[in-house]
Specification:
about 350 residues, alpha/beta, QueA-like, Thrombin, subunit H, 2 domains, nine-stranded mixed β-sheet, six-stranded antiparallel β-sheet, about 30% strand
């Protein structure tokens, strides 16, 4: 297995720069993972593939406005990108330029103070947020002063930041959206429920590492990023029951896939960090089907979907999507591998 095995040429004009007006009107490429057969549908048709007592598992993490602009006492502007909370009001973050964020430096956003309390080995900073009101909620504060970070390949301004959230986003913590879920509407989820489909939730907070490229020709030498997750008891019981009934478990997105495959069977309530790296040759323990978007070439995510089907079938499907002018990446169209 080589990194170049997962490369494909993508015309720049196929990188979606904005979401469609109607979420569930995205196109849906349906791939039979066994025989490689491809069908072209609309995302709202996804209900046709479900039967009563099948289950659908969603990631309810919510993207936080993690991109901030602060100033030091000389009014020099500094960009702060929050990565994850270390403890109450203390975050690991990227700061640019780093020379303006030495230990002890105080940065300001309006009446809020941000104190740099440590410089980590990887160059990231630990920053403490200091409020006049000790009971202030940092997430409420971020909604007022922060910006929702978009992936580096999206260059157009997003007019409505809620379009980079799933309709069921609930738990604050991601710095990038679990994009496979962006296609669902409340009405579509209700239609699935009316059909007898059981819906469960996990939480995996998507980190900046999801955009980190693989830089080694042998993917096995790649160090996978780690992300926090939580699988609640009701979801664990739902999956266990679905397995006993011999019904299908569908993961919405690679984030859900990583949580479920980390926990394994039988499912139990669990929280922790996962750095699971799924690539061809991996034997799936939990999921039967996967809803996902189209991923960047040579990424760990295209390796994951290649493990779920076969590399040749996935690359053929991607080439077909390019030929049919599907929209790619975060705001792009969807793929259903069954």
């Amino acid at each position: 297995m080589k990194l170049s095995d997962f490369f494909y040429e993508l015309p720049v004009d196929l990188i979606a720069q904005h979401p469609l007006e109607q979420r569930d009107c995205s196109r849906l490429l349906c791939l039979n993972k066994l025989n490689g057969e491809i069908n072209h549908r609309i995302f709202s048709d996804i209900t046709d593939f479900f039967e009563p007592d099948d289950c659908l598992i969603l990631n309810n993490s919510r993207v936080i406005p993690a991109r901030l602009f602060a100033a030091n006492n000389k009014k020099y502007v500094v960009e702060i990108f929050l990565l994850h909370a270390v403890r109450k009001n203390v975050w690991e973050c990227l700061v640019k330029p780093g020379k303006k964020a030495k230990i002890g430096e105080i940065l300001y956003i309006n009446e809020i103070k941000i104190k740099i309390i440590d410089v980590l080995e990887n160059g990231n900073r630990l920053a403490e947020f200091i409020f006049d009101n000790i009971n202030s909620d940092i997430y409420d504060m971020l909604e007022k002063i922060g910006n929702v970070p978009l992936p580096p390949y999206i260059h157009e301004k997003l007019e409505n930041s809620e379009r980079y959230q799933t309709v069921y986003a609930e738990k604050n913590g991601s710095v990038a959206a679990p994009t496979a879920g962006l296609h669902f509407t409340p009405e579509l989820l209700e239609k699935l429920k009316q059909k007898g489909v059981k819906i469960g939730y996990v939480t995996l907070h998507v980190g900046l590492g999801t955009f980190r490229p693989v830089k080694v020709e042998n993917p096995l030498e790649h160090k996978m990023h780690s992300e926090n997750y939580f699988l609640p008891n009701e979801t664990a019981e739902l999956i266990n029951t679905t397995k006993k009934l011999n019904k299908k478990i569908t993961a919405v997105g690679t984030t859900v896939c990583r949580v479920l495959e980390t926990v394994g069977m039988p499912m139990v309530e669990q929280s922790g960090e996962t750095d699971i790296f799924i690539y061809p040759g991996y034997e799936f323990k939990v999921i039967d089907r996967l809803i996902t978007n189209f991923h960047l070439p040579e990424s760990t995510l295209i390796m994951l979907v290649s493990a779920f089907s076969e590399r040749e079938k996935i690359m053929n499907a991607y080439n077909e999507a390019i030929k049919e002018k599907y929209r790619f990446f975060s705001f792009g169209d969807a793929m259903f591998i069954y």
